[in-house]
Write a structure and sequence with these properties.
Blueprint (H helix, E strand, L loop, with lengths): L1 H20 L2 H25 L8 H9 L4 H15 L9 H24 L8 H40 L3 H12 L1 H16 L11 H24 L3 H5 L3 H33 L1
Helix pairs in contact: 1-11, 2-4, 2-5, 2-11, 4-11, 5-6, 5-11, 6-7, 6-8, 8-9, 9-11
Membrane topology: Multi-pass membrane protein
Protein name: Membrane protein
Organism: Oikeobacillus pervagus
């Protein structure tokens, strides 16, 4: 027991040193800036898909509402409504292509951040790297759509499975509880994919699971705690005036980026330990 505690303490100390040496504080700030630039283009692209999907703009915003501070959510909702009211939402227009490109900036920032965490240089060409960013952006949107389907049509899906396979009432009760707790599972899948595909090195999927679990749970906890603080104690409007919502959004993105990078550092350190053994 004492040996296990000592090993854990050494591991945490080494993780802290990696976080310090990798300048996660600075890199997270860079990522937060690109997250902000890519947020609205990605939401705009998702909204343009709504005529082809069985849910509404409010359903998409509800995902943000669950975790974002109130001021930030109002900023996102207001800006999205304003932008969408001024643009042609034709799916095949050049504007949508430019929107997809802009939306991938956030994913490209994650790729650079994870390369930094794994201490590897980007060896892929610009075309391949940007294509990967776009593919991962589409994958993220697809995962969000699946999450929306489970929330909006979860009850109907459960009833169909119960009727089709003869499941009992207990199955329906468990299903209804699970479908509302789908966010941690979705986040875990997203982070597992990011940690496996984003770095410019070959990584086995199973080796990234600890970091994916940490990032998923850490992001949820940090988001909820920060949201509670801002909604109940923080008064950024008094300090920053009308841009208080933007500052809150940037801080939220900054904390989110830190969780992603720390998860990457955790995986990289774990891989090093296994190689030494």
């Amino acid at each position: 027991m004492a040996s296990s505690k000592k090993e854990m303490w050494i591991f945490l100390k080494q993780l802290f040193l990696r976080i310090k040496d990798s300048d996660i504080v600075g890199v997270s700030a860079q990522m937060a800036f690109f997250f902000l630039l890519s947020l609205f283009p990605m939401l705009i692209f998702m909204v343009t898909l709504l005529p082809y999907l069985p849910f509404t703009q409010d359903d998409i915003l509800n995902i943000v509402r669950d975790f974002a501070p109130t001021d930030s959510f109002k900023l996102i909702e207001t800006t999205l409504n304003e932008v969408m009211g001024r643009r042609n939402t034709g799916l095949l227009s050049f504007g949508i292509i430019a929107t997809i490109w802009s939306a991938s900036n956030g994913m490209n920032a994650i790729i650079k951040g994870l390369n930094h965490a794994y201490d590897v240089k980007e060896t892929r060409s610009f075309f391949i790297n940007r294509s990967l960013s776009i593919v991962l952006t589409f994958a993220l949107i697809f995962v969000i759509i699946i999450a929306l389907l489970l929330q909006v049509f979860g009850k109907q899906i459960g009833l169909y499975m119960a009727y089709r396979f003869g499941f009992s009432e207990t199955f329906l009760n468990v299903w209804n509880q699970l479908r509302w707790g789908v966010s941690p599972i979705i986040l875990f899948i997203v982070f597992t994919g990011l940690y496996t595909l984003a770095p410019s090195k070959r990584i086995q999927c199973v080796t990234v699971l600890p970091g994916a679990v940490f990032a998923a749970l850490g992001w949820i906890c940090v988001s909820l705690v920060f949201s509670y603080y801002v909604n109940n104690f923080g008064n950024y409007t008094a300090t920053y005036g009308s841009i208080g919502g933007v500052i809150i959004l940037m801080i939220w993105f900054y904390l989110s980026a830190m969780m992603i990078l720390i998860g990457g550092e955790l995986n990289a350190l774990k891989n090093e330990k296994e190689k030494d053994c």
